[in-house]
Amino acid sequence: MLFKQQALLRQKLFVLGSLAIGSVLYLVARVGTLDRLQPICPIENRLTQPEPAQIPLRTLQFKRGLLHELRKGNATKEQIHLHNLVQQLPRAIIIGVRKGGTRALLEMLNLHPAVVKASQEIHFFDNDQNYARGTDWYRGKMPFSFPHQITIEKSPAYFITEEVPERIFKMNSSIKLLIIVREPTTRAVSDYTQVLEGKERKNKTYHKFEKLAIDTNTCEVNTKYKAVRTSIYTKHLERWLKYFPVEQFHIVDGDRLITDPLPELQLVERFLNLPSRISQYNLYFNATRGFYCLRFNIIFNKCLAGSKGRIHPEVDPSVVTKLQKFFHPFNQKFSQITGRTFNWP
């Protein structure tokens, strides 16, 4: 009798235990479901949810893969026709300035899924031989793209070459023009450093920067030195304004692009009427290089070439001061014309 009572008690405890465990599991599952639904249902939560930081990977992967094959010449005419790919004339050009950060700007803009870049400098408008080949030749140098994408090229010599503004105007009077500038003295020294490195590779000697930048006869700034002339931004811009209104130019702060690139890129997105797609996710600081590198997706990253960020030679402080004083009134006029201010001396 006692044995039967104990067996019955154990059976009841088993049933109660099973019900209890089942109830716990149901509540866990229910709470989990509610947790998953919680951010979706309330209106206030929908409004405060940030947009994803990443550029859609599918768009980028398809773009990178197919367009890379086209650049290598591996795509067939059928593939080009199937995907409605075209070679478009640029709707925006980075026209300068040399050593202002044109390559960095082009590569960073290429993070945007609606932008396709010409990999090489075309030098169409500043080279008489190339220009004589005509617009069809120029178009043939452009990358394949989808019709909704914007093709951008960069040739920094355009900014200082006299014939270029009229030539670009004849091709497209409504084209958008990007100019990236750095503090003029720093830019001039960077210009000199690049030429110096080229001379050293060929085992050739070269004058010191001070001797080139300062006229030894007058002890004044040598405006015949090309690195100095290029840094007089307002003189070159005035020539462009004979053909294009100031609204068709966007000035990029090249110094800020080095230290804090995202705000500069967002300004360019707005200027080009592009939806905001470049985010902090796409930019990460490389402490070894001292520059921001690019993150296209979880697989593909890219840093600029090792030639970027050359160490500048030391320049006599008195020469630096003289150059900064020389450039100052030109800088003020450049800011007045463009509406862009800079943290320059």
UniProtKB/TrEMBL annotation:
<feature type="domain" description="Sulfotransferase">
    <location>
        <begin position="90"/>
        <end position="335"/>
    </location>
</feature>
<feature type="binding site">
    <location>
        <position position="292"/>
    </location>
    <ligand>
        <name>3'-phosphoadenylyl sulfate</name>
    </ligand>
</feature>
<protein>
    <recommendedName>
        <fullName>Sulfotransferase</fullName>
        <ecNumber>2.8.2.-</ecNumber>
    </recommendedName>
</protein>
<feature type="binding site">
    <location>
        <begin position="308"/>
        <end position="312"/>
    </location>
    <ligand>
        <name>3'-phosphoadenylyl sulfate</name>
    </ligand>
</feature>
<dbReference type="GO" id="GO:0008467">
    <property type="term" value="F:[heparan sulfate]-glucosamine 3-sulfotransferase activity"/>
</dbReference>
<feature type="binding site">
    <location>
        <position position="190"/>
    </location>
    <ligand>
        <name>3'-phosphoadenylyl sulfate</name>
    </ligand>
</feature>
<feature type="transmembrane region" description="Helical">
    <location>
        <begin position="12"/>
        <end position="29"/>
    </location>
</feature>
<keyword id="KW-0808">Transferase</keyword>
<keyword id="KW-1133">Transmembrane helix</keyword>
<dbReference type="InterPro" id="IPR037359">
    <property type="entry name" value="NST/OST"/>
</dbReference>
<keyword id="KW-0333">Golgi apparatus</keyword>
<keyword id="KW-1015">Disulfide bond</keyword>
<keyword id="KW-0735">Signal-anchor</keyword>
<feature type="active site" description="For sulfotransferase activity">
    <location>
        <position position="99"/>
    </location>
</feature>
<comment type="similarity">
    <text>Belongs to the sulfotransferase 1 family.</text>
</comment>
<dbReference type="GO" id="GO:0000139">
    <property type="term" value="C:Golgi membrane"/>
</dbReference>
<keyword id="KW-0472">Membrane</keyword>
<keyword id="KW-0812">Transmembrane</keyword>
<dbReference type="Pfam" id="PF00685">
    <property type="entry name" value="Sulfotransfer_1"/>
</dbReference>
<feature type="binding site">
    <location>
        <position position="182"/>
    </location>
    <ligand>
        <name>3'-phosphoadenylyl sulfate</name>
    </ligand>
</feature>
<keyword id="KW-0325">Glycoprotein</keyword>
<dbReference type="InterPro" id="IPR000863">
    <property type="entry name" value="Sulfotransferase_dom"/>
</dbReference>
<feature type="disulfide bond">
    <location>
        <begin position="293"/>
        <end position="303"/>
    </location>
</feature>
<feature type="binding site">
    <location>
        <begin position="99"/>
        <end position="103"/>
    </location>
    <ligand>
        <name>3'-phosphoadenylyl sulfate</name>
    </ligand>
</feature>
<dbReference type="InterPro" id="IPR027417">
    <property type="entry name" value="P-loop_NTPase"/>
</dbReference>
